[in-house]
Amino acid sequence: MQTTPSEVLTTLSTLRDYIRWAASRFTQARVSFGHGTVTALDEAAALVLHTLYQPYNLAEAYLDTVLTMTERQAVINIIDRRINERIPAAYLTNEAIFAGLSFYVDDRVLVPRSPIAELIEQRFSPWVDEDQVERILDLCTGSACIAIACAYAFPEASVDAVDLSADALAVAEINIENHQVSDTVTLYQSDLFKELPATLYDVIVSNPPYVCHDEWEQL
To answer: How many helices (H) and strands (E) does the chain have?
Structure first.
């Protein structure tokens, strides 16, 4: 059953209302998930809270606060875009969470969602002695989320981040500036090792694109 925008504006009022409504619309429209969320309700909460400039861990007591008409319309607009244009939520919000950190993303890079995050948070234990790590290489860095997460996990190490795409490196530069790690993370435009300086690395990490070009065009 489809409600009109005017009905939504006049009958729904609270933050809780709009999260529930968005989840129902996602389910009805058969929206696919997997870029940071796995259910319609999680995706609805993420988009609604982001649109209202609220944290993802907002206390439940605030879910019954009443939205202004302007806020309601903003929520309706972003939910409509998610459904009608099938744009991943991370591209709509320009934000993805990786290893507990917030990263800027847009359609120049893939949305980070690798289990490598858990390995980084554990400092690659038990396979790596963290006290012996001085140089780290991130191949196919994309948004630089892996490189930057490594910089947090190994603050005494230097990290080289490599990508062939100039567009991806532009996004990576934004994240390096946002996280203020330019002293430890260095970007290289290179086809894998080709343009890298001759050096030895203690850890090499890579999460390269794993879809072919034809599939990418259909995402």
So the answer is: 9, 6
